Amino acid sequence: MQTETDERKVRLPGTDRARPPAETLVMAERAAGIVGVTRVADITRLDTIGIPTFQAVRPLSATLAVSQGKGVTPELARLSAVMESIEIWHAEQPLGADLTASPREVADRLTYDVYALTPSVPSVLHDGLPLDWVPARSLDGGALTLVPVDVVGLSLQRRDGWHPPAFLSSTNGLASGNTVVEATLHGLYEVIERDAVTAALAGAGVPGVRVAPQSLGSAVADGLSALIDRAGVTLEVRLLASPTGLPCFLAWLACDDYPAAMFGFGCHLDPEIALTRAVTEAAQTRLSYIAGARDDLHDDIDDAGSRRRREPAGTPADLRDLLAPPVRHESLSEDLAHVTAVATAAFGHAPLVAELTRAQVGVPVVKVVAPGSRVTTEVL
């Protein structure tokens, strides 16, 4: 799985990659034509904030026809949108099952408890239920195992026959990258992020600890905050608890002209990247509703708490008092090993990865599955 490019880390504003964005964009734009992306649009100026946000349109999608991407620079936002559309295309493709068997029949081939996977609501999972399985491997040691097809693939198309509900199908953990290691790391970060957000939103009261983003001492985060402030929009950032110990943030944006609070989440070994992901994603969510082109927008986005977020009380906490010193590795491979170890300890099972890469497309795509982690449809 490891490649030479995974041994060097290209540090970019708001992300780490295995290659410079110009090289990645060449790969992504070639693949975009193959998977059916017909248009990539810069929608940044539909809002007053100015945080770069792009849309990639794939009309023949079996799920979402419009994918969005955000970034600190227009180049990174464009790349984010195109890569997300490519990822979803891979998840939509039919997965040929290695075998059909009940959990009882394949128990000796599983490295995890199948009941630790996120169930659908309702779910009829039981030891004797026939399931379709595809191969996967453990990120802790590489042991081969199996995962249910419905956990890996995703399609909204109507299927013939009887398909008993057992597991939640979603894009959680779906990721692409320049290499399999890069894609796997991004997918694992997303799984950890959504576990933390799910736990926070399920708790009583306001989630996490309100923090001052400027207290991180990041020029990138300060620049994003300045754009938001200049637009007359209130930014509220909260540090969420994660059993992994990784920095996980939730960001809200709201203003008088557009009072509904828009959310963004971020998780990463580097607090700066985690924070900037949350903030740029909140701006992306806001633009999703302003543009109105996404297939999955909610009809009711009224939020009784939005006025409080526009008029926050009290002094936000200093991030330097809450965060441990950042862990810095020189390579993506080292990052992945570190994050795998903390995720395994936190969730009680080693995360798994199923590779979805298609040779004709030429972009590494994976689905990371973390038994024991939490996710609800509200955070997808």
From TrEMBL:
<protein>
    <recommendedName>
        <fullName>YcaO domain-containing protein</fullName>
    </recommendedName>
</protein>
<dbReference type="InterPro" id="IPR003776">
    <property type="entry name" value="YcaO-like_dom"/>
</dbReference>
<feature type="region of interest" description="Disordered">
    <location>
        <begin position="300"/>
        <end position="320"/>
    </location>
</feature>
<feature type="domain" description="YcaO">
    <location>
        <begin position="69"/>
        <end position="380"/>
    </location>
</feature>
<dbReference type="Pfam" id="PF02624">
    <property type="entry name" value="YcaO"/>
</dbReference>
